[in-house]
Amino acid sequence: MNLSFINLSLIFLLFTTSTSVSGKIFSDHISPDFTASYLTGDGNTGTFLVSRNNTFKAAIFNPDKQQTSFFYLCIIHSASNTIIWSANRDAPISNSDIVKLTGEGITIFDKNGNSKWSTPTLKSQVKKLSLTEMGNLVLLDQFNHSLWESFQHPTDTIVIGQRLSVGSSLSSASSSSNFSTGNYNLTITSSDAILQWFGQTYWKLSVDSKAYRISHDDIQYMTVNTT
């Protein structure tokens, strides 16, 4: 797959069993009840789920090998090892903390059983968690209807097939090894795309010399094409 994506840091340079098994990597989806940690992933990268053709992987990942308490639930583009999404960016966990999939959704627990991150209350029970070939992590009900998607909760990256709706933002990571929310934001409004630093606007798509407008209708979303 020829992947194109926008990572915010680059902009600023302008489950089927009840328990996880050590070393086991599932393909396409997993079902409740499922539990994983870095220690019960593949033993090397923390990977526990891959998309059907291995384009993306879900992993409990540590970007800084020197830190044992900076692990994140991530979606990673396999070929480039680019992290396109992280769940608990502002609440990192240790290598022994767990990610649990139940009928209620996804929850990340620390070793004391405290919730560090979770999906919101859902309208029906979860039947499975799927990782698509576009890198979208999706909770599905018994009718394969989407209950929750990572694409609707972007962090610092947008990929082909993903829409950044009006009112949503990409926020930079603090550093390459610390995924906590940084100080740069790309926000989509009904009339523009705006880059801000500490809340101060320093760039707008509407005034960029390379941009051109083909319609005066309100903007609905931003997406990335393949060119």
TrEMBL record:
Q: Which Pfam families match?
A: B_lectin
Q: Which parts of the chain span the membrane according to its record? A: none
Would the keyword Protein biosynthesis turn up in this protein's UniProt record?
no
Matches recorded under Gene3D superfamilies: 2.90.10.30
InterPro entries noted in UniProt: Bulb-type_lectin_dom, Bulb-type_lectin_dom_sf, G-type_lectin_kinases/EP1-like
Q: Which UniProt keywords apply?
A: Disulfide bond, Glycoprotein, Kinase, Lectin, Receptor, Signal, Transferase
As one GO molecular function, the record gives: carbohydrate binding
- Report the domain of life of the source organism: Eukaryota
Bulb-type lectin domain: which residues? 34-152
Q: Where is the signal peptide?
A: 1-23
Q: What is this protein called?
A: G-type lectin S-receptor-like serine/threonine-protein kinase
Q: Can you name the source organism? A: Trifolium pratense
